[in-house]
Amino acid sequence: MHALLEKQPIAIRELAARIETEAKVTIEVVRSAPLHTDGNFAKAPAGCGIDDNLRCAILIFNDELTPESAAHELAHLERWLIDGVPRLFFKPEFIPNIQPTEYAGTSLWFENRLEHFHVFRRMKDLGVDPTKGLNVEMGKQWADITAKFAKTALLASVPTGSNTANLHENLTPIGYLGTHLDYCITRRFVDDPAVRSCATDFMENRGLLISARALDRRLNSTLHDKKETARMLIRELRLPRDTAYLKYFNGPAKTVKVVKVWQSV
Ligand SMILES: [Zn+2]
Q1: % the chain with pLDDT above 70
Q2: Closest alpha carbon to 244 in 194, 167, 173
């Protein structure tokens, strides 16, 4: 096990050991320059990844691997490698997977948002407080969103408080749904009242609060099954059925399986 994982509190160290043993992988810890330069993401302390050869790594963007970052990134790896949960990718013609530096609005950003509904809960089991960094992160996220949206001619021309039924048709699908997911994450996991009311006011002033709360309820009934969540979101976005695919990782067999969202595994 990597020395920086060895140093972690027992529950986190045990999870790292379990992933390495059960999935037959080695978790590398690699120091890296930040991958993204946009907004908050430039300041993220860590990230993680897995490639098609089942090589997995935790990337750290400064010298330290804190228990919060270790628990967070291991919770992502646990989902893919122990729980057998697939990653959701959109085809690039619908939503780009990677842009050179910008992360918000990409397929990876979207997938990460979905996983966080589980990762934040798992961090609590591992003895770290997910709200510690989250209050700040989501606070900045809402400030960014508000600033970005306020700048667009579209939203500037929409009087706040009006019920704009066609508003989301004018936003990119990912922008529309991403904002809704941010609201759901804030509502579920952020405990700073200022951040919570910023999110609620933002959605309410744009006539999006009812649809966001409805999405939150639909997430409740699908979050246990990534395929169901993916199907629900694709319907929500009114995108064609073959818009996205799911990628499953099998560590011991060293295989990666890609299936369409409407195909059975
Ligand atoms: Zn994450």
Answers
A1: 80
A2: 173
Q: What is the pLDDT of residue 169?
A: 44
Which string of DSSP letters, residue by residue, matches 168-180? Answer: HHHS-HHHHHHHH
DSSP 85: P
Ligand 1 centre to CA of 181 (Å) is: 14
Q: pLDDT, tens digit, for every residue of 110-160?
A: 898 899 999 999 999 999 998 888 888 888 888 877 776 665 544 444 444
Kindly report the pTM of this predicted structure: 0.86
The residues spanned by each domain of the chain are: 3-125, 131-224
More confident: 78 or 135? 78
Q: Find the 72 Cα to ligand 1 centroid distance in Å.
A: 6
Torsion of CA 7, 254, 115, 217, to 10 degrees: -140
Q: How far is the CA of 205 from the centre of ligand 1 (A)?
A: 29
Question: Ligand 1 centre and the CA of 92: distance in Å?
Answer: 21
Q: Which two tokens stand for residue 189?
A: 């996991």
Backbone angles phi, psi at 57, to 5 degrees: -145, 145
Beta-strand relationship, 87-90 and 56-60: unpaired
For residue 164, the model assigns a pLDDT of 42
Q: 164 CA to middle of ligand 1, Å? A: 32
